[in-house]
Structure formats: structure tokens, C-alpha cells
Amino acid sequence: MHTIKRTVLVTGASSGIGRAIARQLLAQGHRVIGTSRDCRRFNHAHPGFSCVELDMSLLNGIPPVAKQLQIDFPELDAVVFAAGYGQFGSLEQFSFAQIENLLTVNFTAQAFLTRALLPKLKQQARSNLVYIGSEAALKGSRNGTVYCASKFALRGFTQALRDECGKSPVRVSLINPGMVDTAFFDALSFAPGKQPSQALQAEDVADAVSYILQAGPNCVIDEINLNPPNKVIEFKK
User: Fold this and answer.
1) What gap in Å lies between CA 234 and CA 198, rounded to an integer?
2) % helix, strand, coil for the chain, step of 5
3) CATH code of 110's domain
4) Counting CB atoms within 10 angstroms of each CB, which of 24, 226, 232, 237 has the fewest?
5) Residue 160 is assigned to a structural domain of this protein
6) Three-class DSSP category at 167
7) Contact at 8 Å (CB) between 200 and 176?
């Protein structure tokens, strides 16, 4: 493992997995640019951190934000795509707008941001694109029709992009966590079990991101699957 100071863009950095990733990278001495729909959600200033407001559900806003990012941070050499949300139920329980929004945030917006940043990232000596997927990208499940589709799309995207970038300095990685104990489940009817062995922590995913970013120059980590030792789902009353 090689500790190289990076300039990393982290989407969804104001909560959950994205926040844990941003905090760990800052603790390791990296420069972090975190996106959020509302920068007021960051309560404590840090000399190595900058916030950029970005709503991943508004596709037209992504290219101009990405362009400004590359002007303000020309040394940007890594992106961690942690923004996303979950919504579950049978397909007929979704409105057409809900289907569109879930696919937009969890997949299309990530493709847009990648497209906007990729040319400049290819000009860096080395760069990383790290996507936070899900165990839902590995196997479809009941009530996960739309969510699984969004994560399957992201997985296929990263596999193809990895091949496209094979002759460039850009390394493409995907992390597929199982259930992580975060606010992701606050609006859902189920959650992971409460015992420590029954859920991942956001810091576990952050550790995987650090491992990828610090890998040697001749090593590409394609995909990492993470799960707690015991998978337990509890349904809320």
C-alpha cells in the first residue's frame, strides 16, 4: 500500500457512507471536496475540506458544476460516488415519477458526472473512479425491482468503463456493501439487526475506499463485496 495524498471528490458527503468516507480521507491527510444538496449540513470547518452544492436528481445541473470543479480543483484525481438512496416495494407500488427519480439518482446522474469529469481525469498521472454499489447489484430480490435495476445498471456501467479506461491512468472500482447501519433505513420499513455482527458500519466501506485509493500503481481493484458476518433483517412495526 502506498500512501499518496490525493484530491478526492465525494458525492453524498453530508451523511451515511459518504460522510464516513470523507472523514476518513481527511484524517489521512487527503484533500476532500464533498457534494451535498445543502452545504449547511456540514457544521464543522476543516482546512482540507470544501463543499460543493449538487443535487444529483437534477441532471442539467451536473455538467456546469463538474466544469467549475475542474477549474477550482485542477489537481482533482479521484472521485467516490457515494450519493444514492433506497426505495422498495413491488413495481406497481411505484409511481412513474418515483421510478424515474430512483434511476436518475442511483445511476444516470453518476454516468453524467463521470462523463463530465473523465477527460480531465485521463490527463492526471493516476486517477480513480470508485462507485458505491450494493449487494442488490449481485442478485435481484422481491420488492427491489427498481432499486436492484439501478444498482445492476451501475455495476454493468463500471465493468464496461473499466475496459474502456484500460489504457489510460484511470482505474475503475466498485464496492458492493450489504446492509450498512446508517440513516439509509430511516424512511424504510426494514433495517439491519441491532447486534454488531448483523450490519456493516459506514467506516467499513470507508476502509475499502482507502484500500483502493492506496493500491500500488500496477494494481487495479475491480470489485469488492462486503457483508456482515450475520445477515439479519428486522421489520419495523
Assistant:
1) 10
2) 40, 20, 40
3) 3.40.50.720
4) 237
5) yes
6) coil
7) no
Percent of the chain with pLDDT over 90: 80
User: Is 220 in contact with 211 (CB distance < 8 Å)?
Assistant: no
Residues 6+ apart with CB under 8 A from 132: 17, 18, 80, 81, 82, 84, 175, 177, 205
Please check whether residue 83 lies inside any domain of the structure: yes
55 in a structural domain? yes
The CB density around residue 84, as the number of other CB atoms within 10 Å, is 26
Total domain count for the chain? 1
192 φ/ψ sector (left φ>0, alpha ψ -120 to 50, else beta)? beta
Instruction: Record the cell numbers describing residue 108, joined without a space.
Output: 444516470
CA gap 25, 206 in Å, rounded: 8
Distance from CA of residue 19 to its chain's centroid? 11
Q: 0.90 exceeded by the pTM?
A: yes
Does residue 2 belong to any structural domain of this protein? no
Task: Pick the closest to residue 121 from 56, 82, 165 (CA basis).
Answer: 165
Q: Kindly give the pairing relationship between strand 7-11 and strand 31-36.
A: parallel
Q: Which three cell numbers stand for residue 193?
A: 439487526
Q: Containing domain of residue 168, as a range?
A: 7-235
Q: Specify whether 211 is catalytic.
A: no
pLDDT in tens, 20-38: 999 999 999 999 999 999 9
